[in-house]
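Input record (Table S2, row 191):
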Amino acid sequence: MADFAPQPVDPGRVDVDVGAGTLRPEGPTLVRRLSDLEGLFRDQDAWRRDVEDGDRVVYQVSSSRVPEEPRELPQSITTILPGTCGGELYMTKGHQHPDPQGEIYLGLAGTGGLLLHDGKRTEWVDMAAGVVGYIPPGWAHRSVNTGNEPYRFLAVYPGSAGHDYGWVVEHGMGSRVMRTDAGHRLVAWDG
Ligand code: M6P
Ligand code: ZN
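Output record (6-O-phosphono-alpha-D-mannopyranose complex):
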């Protein structure tokens, strides 16, 4: 991967390739496989089996060149592939911002959802192309693919917000999102 050391970015245009799920000028791309989501799916036996059985890619995050630095507004496109692990729909790891700041997601393709949890309350936003999901400060957020096609969204977030993955491991996300015949269903975290 090329070196994208933080550096000031001049004002300019960013092209969104909705079909490819990339931004141009292009920054780093992150690929997360099932093995990168250790301890996050409820059915750990199913997770272990699926990791041994090919360790599929769950999602990919393609970023622009705007650095994660204070006062900047980095952008990224996340593409979550369709699939389940132990009946639970493919999802992002989910994180809390250590520096509580808001974030917006714009649906680009496919169908999905934005699961939000503040430690007490849990909210769900159905996402599709053209929908903006708003993440207020203090709400942990996880995205889920609820359809049979890749679900893709653009994220814009404050460069100093950060990513705390441990918060989700400690507090959970309030609900889990399971595949059903009719589509999907939210179930209680420990249910
Ligand atoms: C969005 C943004 C990114 C985040 C990515 C994947 O693109 O919120 O900041 O990294 O989704 O989510 P996660 O970091 O929880 O795996
Ligand atoms: Zn975030």
